[in-house]
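Now for one specimen:
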Amino acid sequence: MSEAPRAPILLVEDTRSLALVYEGVLKREGYAVECAYLAEEARARHLGASGRLVLLDLMLPDGDGLDLLTEMRAADPEGKIIVITANGSINRAVEAMKRGAFDFLVKPFDERRLLSAVSNAMKEIGAPEPSARARGDVEGGAFHGFIGRSPAMREVYRLIGEIGRSTATVFITGESGAGKEVAAQAIHAESGRAKGPFIALNCGAIPRDLLESEVFGHLRGSFTGAIADKPGAAAAADGGTLFLDEICEMDLALQTKLLRFLQTSTVTPVGATTPRKVDARIICATNRDPMAEVRAGRFREDLFYRLHVVPIHLPPLRDRGEDVIEAAEAFLRRYAREEGKRFARLSPAMKDALRAMPWPGNVRQLQNVIWNVVLLHDAEEATPEMLPPGLAGPDSPPPAPAPSAAAPLDFSARIESLVGATMAEVEREFIEATVAAHGGSVPKAARVLDLSPSTIYRKRESWTKG
């Protein structure tokens, strides 16, 4: 391997708002970053590079990212390139991997996925990880993105460490917001597949008639709208890990095909007659009781036992003792730094208030609450009075009702217009009405609908594109 690169990470992204987000995430972890917004600018900054890491968006206004990838690989064979592509363009990402890309990220991705890909690439190059001092030690005592030292979480860390090195299928259960995808990424990072792709697919965020294509791919012309071959998530995860979130949302017919995939390690894209071999470890997750789904006939029993080789249950935040305080303090420091605020600690009363809350939305809810505190206030110390209405305790005033809050959720006046609509159209109507009823807040609507906010964001993005 070459020596650690002296040059900073080269980030090539023409959407400046996204470039700022990615740059901020990387710099918080201690990485040096240099940005380029055009293909020509990227060529100039990459000139003479040796063993450099590049984050390359494949859609650039002045050139094809795949061509730029080929040029950079030829100029710096020792370097590593992580390509970034839009959802629905996985076939371009697969082509990039064939041309020598180290990994790929599909928008929208979260910071854990970005940092995992960058860390793996840096290890391959031979570059040292940023020190805890350089990262600001924001998550002191963290384990692969988790925060907390409670006995329940230490057991989770132990399990992840033990099973990470195996190839066994893992079944993760836990309430919404408990960190199931974080656990899946941790297992991947601990495994011998860490240098391979980590492909996450939310089965509840994709219309059922499209889910088979998303998982197994399709051939051009196999159905209306199939204008090009698509490899699918299983093929994209070849050599790495396929994470199927909300697995209990999968249609029974598709469950049969997933079982066949697990038994044969082959996939047959929609419209194809010849299967192809795929080597991907399967991790799945659900916020439901899987055995209850089996008893209700909504989940195949044979598939459940095939998937349920190594079970991991993530405890809810309310059962994790002082983890709520450790996580809240970490979020407070992070958001204070990002927003330029003075917050340095939680007051004793604030700690008591956080301990007393049930946290139905778990860590995700806690994160949103602390972010709200930082955005709307500025002080050295966070106090209960800064909490959003309704969270500060039994003596706090109830939240004011949103204007006409009930109207968007009253479907009685719309039933006639919905008759004849598809389930996808009804789902969109209901989700948008719920978001509107909560003042446009996706996190609040997600809690009411028992969905993750990321599921709603993905659905809304797909509706916009459609």
